[in-house]
Specification:
This protein has 159 residues and is an alpha+beta fold. The protein has a single domain, classed as Jelly Rolls (Sandwich), CATH 2.60.120. Helices cover 21% and strands 42% of the residues. The chain contains 4 helices and 11 strands. The strands form 2 sheets. A 6-stranded antiparallel sheet has the order 1-3-4-11-6-9. Strands 2-5-10-7-8 form a 5-stranded antiparallel sheet. A hairpin with a 2-residue loop joins strand 7 and strand 8. The longest helix is centred in the first third of the chain and has 15 residues. The two termini are 23 Å apart.
């Protein structure tokens, strides 16, 4: 069953606190900083698909950071496959940064620090993968995180 968290029906002064709680409760504990002068809007749609979950995040400009403090506070054995649907985002992890535009993908490992930055309105699909399952295929995640995968052709198109 799909769950939806949205700021649409909230008073403007309550939207940011609700959003921070929704992001932390749906994905993993992160620090969130909102940008810009536009009124804030955010929506998360999250659905289980077997052992996986698929989420869609639509929002205004912001940055989210999973710091060592957040990792220690709430460990999570997940990897995310982020697929940019609209807008532009940046993902940073393991000393790399990748720019994500429409249809681009990147892998993120929740067990290590990372950051996502969106400089304007955006929509991004996020596939939540149990980390042990992905590590059976990859061995280690470090060589694969924060690398832009072109989603319009090749393996990226298949994904």
């Amino acid at each position: 069953m799909t769950k939806i968290w949205s700021t649409a029906g909230l008073r403007p002064k309550d939207r940011v606190a609700y959003w921070v709680d929704a992001v932390c409760g749906t994905f993993v504990h992160m620090d969130c900083t909102l940008w810009g002068d536009a009124p804030f809007f955010g929506e998360i749609r999250d659905a289980p698909v077997g052992a996986l979950r698929i989420g869609t995040v639509t929002s205004t400009a912001q940055s989210v950071v999973r710091s060592p403090r957040q990792i220690a506070r709430a460990p999570a054995e997940l990897c995310f496959l982020a697929i940019q649907e609209r807008g532009r985002g940046y993902v940073a992890q393991d000393g790399r940064e990748a720019e994500l535009q429409t249809a681009a993908l990147a892998i993120i490992d929740s067990t290590r620090p990372h950051a996502l930055t969106f400089d304007g309105g955006f929509s991004q699909h996020v596939l939540h993968i149990p980390r042990p399952s992905l590590m059976q295929c990859l061995g280690r995640s470090e060589p694969f995180t924060a690398i832009r995968i072109d989603g319009s052709s090749g393996i990226g198109g298949l994904l």
